[in-house]
Write a structure and sequence with these properties.
The chain is of the alpha/beta class and 361 residues long. The chain folds into two domains: 4-162 and 274-360, Zn peptidases (Aminopeptidase); 164-271, 2-Layer Sandwich (Alpha-Beta Plaits), CATH 3.30.70. It has ten helices and 16 strands. The chain has helices spanning 4-15, 24-41, 80-83, 98-114, 133-141, 189-203, 241-252, 280-289, 309-314, 341-360, and strands at residues 45-47, 57-59, 66-71, 87-89, 92-94, 118-123, 146-149, 158-162, 164-173, 211-219, 229-238, 262-271, 300-303, 318-320, 327-328, 336-338. The strands form four sheets. Strands 1-2-6-3-7-14 form a six-stranded mixed beta sheet, with helices on both faces. A hairpin with a 7-residue loop joins strand 15 (327-328) and strand 16 (336-338). The longest helix has 20 residues, at 341-360. It is elongated. The two termini are 28 Å apart.
């Protein structure tokens, strides 16, 4: 029987090892902490990252039918621990990354130590769109019975659907000229970009909860020069992959109508939609099992943000998200998790795995 003190000790150790997505040293340090913890619990660990890539770990038997998903990285920059030190106040534990997702990693390790038929993949770049992690997630999830994602709960609720995400980089290439002497000789990339921004805003559809948001823009070199380059980052989100594809196509084919300016569009950080059909059977089973795990009121909800579960759901693998800790303010200065939620979520995951194993037999 794992005590609350042991959950707290492990959670504190994880939080006090800062691991921002951009800090390779921190990610390597966090991977080493996980490896040491796994070894103490008798859990096998394999390094599965490609040469030169951030550290990725596969814990437990590689052939297991159920895969847990977690990530090492947090959004909190190096030094956040000085401003947001580890703290426990009753049942509430605080610190950078404590909820998203150091608590989820603690839960995952405890599940692996107590449960057969499960493995856990831990990637290092989920918070920045999984540019390298996506390949590992898709490769190692293939053929599994189910994928259970250790992202934090949504106010205690399981996450049964997530919007698809596409980040576009829009580049306008024009022609520079002196803004005072002969502006007519130029081709103003900034004017074209302004038209792109207006077009993107018009793609949003409130009824469908489709969002199209210009987020970052840059243009020009000096105040008296017609800008020959301009760039824009666009954040697109929708409940279906088909809707995301429609939005991307619309932006890519848009003509800003400025003579001499050409438009190019590239995508980054794209995640297909996690549609509710992928989680339906697992969610129903989890709701049935919850009371026996000390979780009296468990609900489900769809959320706008993406996770690595989007990839496995799009592959047609039964996927359930939001099985990590219960708390609030993920990514924020007051991020916290309920310590008592950790063993309950671990118990729920273990029972889910056992029920899935029994169903296969």
């Amino acid at each position: 029987m794992v005590t609350d003190d042991e959950y707290e000790r492990m959670l504190r150790d994880f939080v006090c090892c800062e691991s921002p997505s951009s800090d390779r040293h921190g990610l390597e340090a966090m991977a080493a902490v996980i490896e040491a913890e796994a070894a103490s619990l008798g859990i096998a660990v394999t390094r599965c990252s490609e040469e030169g890539a951030p550290p990725e770990l596969l814990l437990g038997p590689p052939e297991a039918s159920v895969l847990l998903l977690g990530h090492l990285d947090t959004v909190h920059p190096l030094g956040s621990l000085e401003r947001q030190p580890w703290r426990r106040d009753g049942d509430r534990c605080s610190g950078p990354g404590v909820l998203d997702m150091k608590a989820g990693l603690v839960i995952g390790l405890q599940v692996l130590a107590a449960t057969a038929g499960v493995a856990m993949l831990i990637t290092a770049d989920e918070e920045v769109g999984s540019p390298t992690g996506r390949h590992s997630v898709e490769r190692l999830a293939r053929g599994r019975t189910a994928v259970l994602v250790l992202e934090p709960a949504a106010g205690g609720d399981l996450k049964v659907a997530r919007k698809g995400v596409a980040r576009l980089q829009v580049s306008c290439a024009g022609r520079a000229a002196h803004a005072g002497l002969e502006p007519e000789r130029g081709a103003n990339a900034l004017v074209a970009l302004a038209r792109v921004i207006a077009f993107v805003e018009g793609l949003a559809d409130q009824e469908r909860s489709t969002t199209a948001t210009p987020t970052l823009a840059r243009a020009g070199t000096t105040s008296n020069t017609v800008p020959d380059t301009a760039t824009l980052t666009v954040d697109l989100r929708a409940w279906t992959t088909a809707e995301i594809e429609r939005l991307v196509s619309a932006v890519a084919s848009f003509d800003p109508g400025v003579d001499g300016v050409t438009l190019s569009v590239s995508t980054s950080g794209t995640r297909p939609a996690f549609e509710a059909s992928a989680s339906a059977s697992l969610a129903a089973l989890a709701l049935e099992l919850a009371p026996s795990c000390g979780i009296e009121q468990l609900s489900t909800r769809a959320v706008g943000g993406g996770s690595d579960g989007n990839f496995t759901a799009a592959m047609g693998i039964a996927t359930l998200d939001g099985l990590g800790g219960v708390g609030a303010n993920p990514h924020g200065a007051e991020e916290w998790v309920s310590l008592s939620s950790l063993p309950r979520r671990a118990a729920l995951i273990s029972q889910l795995i056992a029920a899935l194993d029994q169903a296969v037999r």
